[in-house]
Amino acid sequence: MPKSKICIRKICFSVETVKRLSLYLRDLRKLAKKKIQFISSNKITQLLNISPAQFRKDLSYFGEFGKRGVGYEVEKLIKKLEEILGINKEWRIAVVGVGRLGSALLRFEGFSKFNIKIKTAFDIDKKKIGKVINGIKIEDVGNLERVIKKEKIKLSLICTPPQVAQDITNRLVSAGIRGILNFAPVALKVANNVFISNVDMACELEQLIFLLNNER
């Protein structure tokens, strides 16, 4: 189930903090490409429309990184954020469901920036099984548990029709999957030690429409 708070070493912070860390990392990488060596909290937060105090608070959960009067060393902070987020090491992912969305994700090159490697994909369609997309072979979904265990995969993307998503989730979890990014428009039930993030574009658009519709 989605969790609103995370506790590590008796320090608790919101999931929103983690999301902001990803945004900080994204913009710090842009600054590094421009050969900018140091930056203040004031300047980096101007890019994200949040307060410098929020930026400093988010980082304070994990240590002290800035120098008074100097600011933050960009490359050093990038490496630290990568370490905090866990993307300083490679993570293997499985994609279940190779329709239009699943196929697009297999072709997406951006995962490499986050040290994420799609290792395998699964589908039920015999016309797709055995095909290779962007170097990734599509496996029979009947072999899901065996392949997941063999490749020691801990993360999965679910791109299946909603009516089969829960069954696929149960099988993934039993095979050792601990994190799921769910694109199926259905609420999945899992144990507390399994993390799920839902991507529902229709719901996101409905929220925007609601705000526009009630704008004063």
Textual characterization of the structure:
The chain is α/β, with parallel strands linked by helices. The chain folds into 2 domains: 5-85, Winged helix-like DNA-binding domain superfamily/Winged helix DNA-binding domain (Arc Repressor Mutant, subunit A, Orthogonal Bundle), CATH 1.10.10.10; 91-203, NAD(P)-binding Rossmann-like Domain (Rossmann fold), CATH 3.40.50. Helices cover 42% and strands 21% of the residues. The protein contains 8 helices and 11 strands. The protein has helices at residues 15-33, 41-48, 52-60, 74-85, 100-107, 144-151, 162-174, 201-213; strands at residues 5-8, 11-14, 38-39, 72-73, 91-96, 116-123, 132-133, 136-140, 155-158, 179-182, 195-198. Strands 7-8-6-5-9-10-11 form a 7-stranded mixed beta sheet. The protein has a two-stranded antiparallel sheet with strand order 1-2. Helix 7 (162-174) links the parallel strand 9 and strand 10. Helix 1 (15-33) packs across helix 2 (41-48), helix 1 (15-33) runs antiparallel to helix 4 (74-85) and helix 2 crosses helix 3 (52-60). 23% of the residues are buried. The model has no long low-confidence stretch (mean pLDDT 90).
Helices and strands, with pairings:
Elements: E1 5-8, E2 11-14, H1 15-33, E3 38-39, H2 41-48, H3 52-60, E4 72-73, H4 74-85, E5 91-96, H5 100-107, E6 116-123, E7 132-133, E8 136-140, H6 144-151, E9 155-158, H7 162-174, E10 179-182, E11 195-198, H8 201-213
Parallel strand pairs: 5-6, 5-9, 6-8, 9-10, 10-11
Antiparallel strand pairs: 1-2, 3-4, 7-8
Helix pairs in contact: 1-2, 1-4, 2-3
